[in-house]
Specification:
By secondary structure, the chain is an all-alpha fold. The chain contains seven helices and no strands.
């Protein structure tokens, strides 16, 4: 049963938020940010509405969101860096990642690096794959981490 306070799919997530609160936000953002199809952005918006209604703390939602999004992208980075192209193509085909698309993404990433990590947060599809591509493109991890944190903070805050 959905929450009458939240419309549509947001209401469908209400029982998950009611039962698990911040853990629901953390889990869905974490898995979404390393490529698992999950309603991360949707749960974040629903959690913000809950915070506005006094059912969650807004500062905690933001903190959990930034940490979970950053951690998820770091898992994606590790998948790309340590798993390599073959692993990404093997499992990525289930979500539309092809050899040609990956080539284009790597070329674009090589030219624009840190800007891509930040901007990708705001583009559905890119948000889920940008850590993986950064790892494949051998972006230095510390550089990735800085841009990843900045992007996560801007995205969650928005």
């Amino acid at each position: 049963m959905s929450d009458p306070m939240l419309p549509g799919v947001f209401g469908d997530l209400a029982p998950f938020l009611d039962s698990y609160g911040y853990l629901a936000v953390a889990a869905l953002l974490f898995v979404e940010d390393f490529g698992v199809p999950a309603p991360g952005e949707t749960i974040l918006i629903a959690a913000a509405v809950y915070a506005g209604a006094g059912r969650l703390n807004l500062a905690a939602v933001v903190a959990v969101g930034v940490v979970a999004a950053t951690a998820g992208d770091n898992v994606g980075f590790a998948i790309g860096h340590f798993g390599g192209r073959a692993l990404v193509l093997r499992f990525g085909r289930h979500v539309g990642i092809t050899d040609a698309r990956l080539d284009r993404a790597e070329r674009f990433f090589s030219r624009h690096g840190g800007k891509v990590v930040v901007a990708a947060r705001f583009v559905e599809g890119l948000r889920q794959i940008n850590g993986v591509v950064a790892g494949l493109a051998n972006m230095p991890w510390r550089r990735f981490l800085v841009f990843n944190l900045l992007g996560a903070a801007l995205w969650v805050g928005t």
